[in-house]
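Quick illustration, no need to memorize.
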Amino acid sequence: MRPVIIGLLVFALTSGGFLAAMLLSAALPEHHLSKDSRETAKLGVGLMATLTALVLGLVIASVKSSFDDLSTAVKHTAAEILTLDRTLARYGPETQEIREQLKSVVRQRLEKTWPQGPSLNSSSISSIACRRKMTTSVGSRLKPWI
């Protein structure tokens, strides 16, 4: 479900519960509406709200940790692939076929992983261009390792 639909559903159910409680309060006996009963209900609601906030915080922390781990793995893999490509490029035209195969494999894997394609905005495009320029300038100064 879409988040907006879920939010509207939660809002509708909460509002419905509130209206039902208002209607039922008129039918309750007087001893259920005493000050002590209301305080006990407030304590129960406060406890439930605190536990819900705690669980929600733990879920968010877990998701963020998983996202950070995956993001680090993707960046590390991308850096290794770029390093391999740049190293192969420094060995000259005889490695061109291998580089093309590497690009093809990486392109297929990216399309399989993210079939909707990249979501680039203007700042990420300029950042990518800047990184390419920097990588090219640094890579041209490095010599092959043999």
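Residues 53 and 59 are 10 Å apart (CA to CA).
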